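FAQ: What does the model actually see?

It sees only this:
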Amino acid sequence: MTILITGAAGFVGSKMAEYFNLADSSIQLIGIDNLSRKGSETNLGKLAKYDCNFIVGDISNQKDIDSLPKVDWIIDCAANPSVLAGHNGTSSLDLINNNLTGTFYLLEKCKRDQAGFILLSTNRVYNIESLRKIPLLQNENRFDLDENKFMPNGGSMKGINESFSTSAPISLYGATKLASEIIALEYHYSFGFPVWINRCGVIAGPGQFGKIDQGIFSYWIYQYLLDKPLSFIGFGGTGYQVRDMLHPYDVFAMVKQQINSISNDAPKVINLGGGVENTMSLLELDQYCKTNINTSKLIKSVIEDRAFDIPYYSTDFSIAQQYWNWKPTVSSYEILDQITLYAQNNLEHIHAIS
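And it is asked to produce this:
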């Protein structure tokens, strides 16, 4: 079997190569990445170690995709994953080319090769206004779901499920991923090759680049270790906003099942995330850092909310559990411990990419 991993030099892509190589060394791995992300070139040595045939190329360039060898599966990990992409002076066209045009060329390749396609999508396809209406309680150090008030359709005490609204506004980033989902499904129904779409929560783990708008858990730990300034932004500057956390190995566990499955019974679009048990507020993350890194670090507060911020997100992964017997296996604090240990052992590298 030959598997093409896009965005292979990124955090998730390189982890997919690592886990597939460890699981089955007979699988032929091909990786493609344009190396536009700062620090991505440092993963090339790892890809060689994982016997991944790496090709410098851009999935939004048709010639680069057409020149690739025949494959059996494509795992699409390539994206500009920032909810701020296309705003604040960045190119909206670049975002669309990276996240949508590239999907089209990959699907054309699947049609030619009769290869399967797995898209790593995002919870950012869900409607921002509806997410802000989720009833919450303000507890000692975080927001929590309020079971005594009405939940929007698709929301429950388990979190957000796949029926939650995907209408605008969802951000330009979310729109490119939702459009990619739709076109991937249409290719599946039109041309018959398998397609699976995984809407992932916040993926976090050792080796992540970690930026304020993508990889917040790693970013916060890195800023502590590098003694750089940090701020609680929005929602009163309290740090009460909450996200769930998902380890890349748990993403791989689902992807591996999807590749090996011949069943067509499972829904094509599913949520993957840490769920309520693996939620953490920014304040709780900061408390972890104070306990484990620097007890005296001061955090600034910025009161104003930002356009795409939401106060709470947890993933209802009931469909993944029902059809695939999947649930996250790496806890939130295990993830933080892994990130911290990696960063402490690679501080010079962390400083170079920050």
